[in-house]
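User: I've been trying to design a sequence by hand for this structure and keep getting stuck. Would you show me what you'd pick, starting by listing the structure so we're on the same page?

Assistant: Good idea, let's start from the same input. This is the structure you sent:
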């Protein structure tokens, strides 16, 4: 889900449980230089992780950002967490881009979706 995408806005599909989610919520600082390029690179890198299922993101004008990453199993999530490029971006995020953040990891046991049919 690119930050500058012209693609239609759709949530990630519902997957057959169990699977894992990582919910990363941030409050950004005023200085976001280099952030978009790094976020785009992280999006490319995470897609290379076997077991990565997708990502939803939302941003408010006030700086709150929520990213939900979906992973088939705990091993895929661990592979992403320990990726060297991701680790470097985490370090830069703490030093430059994030005023605060929280990370919540959960195992999904139930999932469903709805899309209204176009008329």
């Amino acid at each position: 889900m690119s930050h500058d995408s012209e693609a239609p806005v759709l949530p990630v599909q519902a997957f057959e449980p169990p699977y894992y989610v990582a919910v990363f919520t941030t409050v950004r600082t005023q200085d976001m230089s280099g952030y978009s390029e790094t976020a785009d690179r992280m999006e490319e890198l995470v897609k290379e992780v076997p077991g990565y299922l997708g990502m939803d993101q939302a941003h408010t004008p006030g700086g709150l950002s929520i990213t939900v990453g979906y992973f088939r199993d705990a091993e895929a999530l661990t592979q992403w967490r320990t990726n060297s490029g991701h680790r470097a971006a985490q370090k830069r995020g703490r030093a430059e881009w994030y005023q605060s953040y929280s990370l919540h990891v959960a195992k999904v046991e139930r999932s469903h979706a709805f899309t209204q049919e176009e008329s």
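That's my pick for every position. To get oriented when you compare it with your attempt: The helical segments are 35-46, 74-81, 84-97. The first strand starts at residue 19 and ends at 28.
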